[in-house]
Amino acid sequence: MQNTHSSQLVQRSLQSVWHPCTQMQHHETVPLVAVKRGQGVWLYDGDNRRYLDAVSSWWVNLFGHANPRINAALKDQLDTLEHAMLAGFTHEPVVALSEKLSALTEGVLGHCFYASDGASAVEIALKMSFHSWRNLGLPAKQEFVCLKGGYHGETIGALAVTDVAIFRDAYDALLKPTHCLMSPDARLALDGETDDDQARRAAHELELLLQERADHISAVIVEPLVQCASGMAMHSALYLQLVRQLCDQYKVHMIADEIAVGCGRTGTFFACEQAHIWPDFVCLSKGISGGYLPLSLVMTRDSIYQTFYSDSVARGFLHSHSYTGNPLACRAALATLAIFEEDDVLAQNQVRAQRMTAALEPLRQHSHVKNFRQQGMIWAFDAQVADAAKAATFSRRFFATALEHELLIRPIGRTVYLMPPYILSNDEIDLLATRLHTVFEKVVHA
Ligand SMILES: *Cc1c(COP(=O)(O)O)cnc(C)c1O
User: Fold this and answer.
1) Are 203 and 246 a contacting pair, CB within 8 Å?
2) What tens digit of pLDDT does each residue of 422-443 get?
3) Which residues lie with the beta carbon below 6 Å from any ligand 1 atom?
4) pTM for the predicted model, two decimal places
5) Are residues 239 and 257 in the same domain?
6) How far is the CA of 59 from the centre of ligand 1 (A)?
7) CATH code: domain of residue 423
8) Number of domains the chain is built from
9) C-alpha 319: how far from its chain's center?
10) pLDDT tier at 3 (50, 70, 90 boundaries)?
11) Do 351 and 414 lie in a common domain?
12) Which of 29, 207, 209, 278 has the smallest number of CB atoms closer than 10 Å to its CB?
């Protein structure tokens, strides 16, 4: 049981805070945890109970809570410049971050545009793509292509290119129609087919559409390698190569939403690197600030940037957010990128991932585990639950049972996944794998 202070805080929260992605009534039975502090992979509540943050607090926290290096950078920045508007002004953190990110694309994506959350980055990419064609005298290119099971955020424009029923259905009447095509999800491969076969079939659907409608299509938006929010659907890198070729051939932009899969999550810094391609737009958010501050950005090619460069105000990209390029957030991002370099994180994560996969081997063999899959620092599997009523409450029961075993894990439907911070020690890996197994057993047999 939580102590008086914790349970009072929970009560006050339920009276005053409308929690995200939550049917508030469920908190009559599902616990709400009053977090007091964080340290490394652990979150602590008011009673000093701890929870291993196995989902990086919605996929944002890369290097643990209260990371000493990010803390130090932010404290320094706080005493230097907390914020200044980015129209008409610039500052070192936003310039240094833009340069560093561009260098990570070998300079191919030369300019960065900033916002605060992922959905806004997606809105920006969609608007920029459309406006760029318009500036080129092709205003008919107004339509967007997205994928079944894709997720790009929940503002009206981003939701229009999202295909996750639970987020979308209530608002369908508000959304602009899109072309929603077959997912390359490897689980959809037919008997005897490979991941690549599924990628080819999905790309073929795109090709048929582009043959018909490329004159009206502005961009294709994809989540490279892993469609995360619909349940960690993984696909072959071949799909990204095929999309790149088709976009070149039919003069359509390719938008890579790397908000979840970027920043090393799939094994390379950008997921697209595994396909050896660069898209026309990359959206980043979530992990880029190390999980410290809201920050998102859209990187694009100089050729697209140039279509806006003119004496005319109306040809410019006039989008803005109040906190665009916030110096504190950019400084957190610079500290995060510095850790990647100093600690050789991508190489270290390979070792970490191997150990994690090995530790999960007994669970992979479990008779109720289907489609065990892994990409970089993401692990997922689908739980087989025959009873429909039990299946419907699986996620909530799992979350509650995991908390009892000191784990923060929130399955998506019956897909259980891990997206831990990149600092898990060997002991923490073993603890996570063992406890996950125990929790899974309890929940599937309950
Ligand atoms: C989380 C996410 C978004 C939206 O980001 P928010 O900051 O939640 O608005 C967009 N695309 C992908 C792939 C995401 O995972």
Assistant:
1) yes
2) 999 999 999 999 999 999 999 9
3) 117-119, 122, 151-153, 223, 228-229, 257, 259-260, 285-286
4) 0.98
5) yes
6) 10
7) 3.90.1150.10
8) 2
9) 23
10) low
11) yes
12) 29
Q: Is the pLDDT of residue 397 over 90?
A: yes
Same domain, residue pair 15 and 97: no
**189 & 267 share domain:** yes
For 114, the token pair is 């900033």
Q: Mean pLDDT across the chain, nearest whole number?
A: 97
Note whether 76 and 196 are same-domain residues.
Answer: yes
What number of residues does the chain have? 446
Cβ atoms of 419 and 434 closer than 8 Å: no
Q: Note whether 197 and 337 are same-domain residues.
A: yes
Degrees to nearest 5, angle at CA 264 with 261 and 266: 55
Query: Can you tell me which atom of ligand 1 is nearest the CA of 118?
Result: 5
Q: Whose CA is nearest to atom 8 of ligand 1?
A: 118
Domain harbouring 92, CATH code: 3.40.640.10
- Residue 176: phi and psi, rounded to 5, are -70, 135
Cβ-proximal residues to 194 (8 Å cutoff; 6+ apart), any chain: 236
CA of 78 to the centre of ligand 1 (A): 27
Mean pLDDT of 80-105: 98
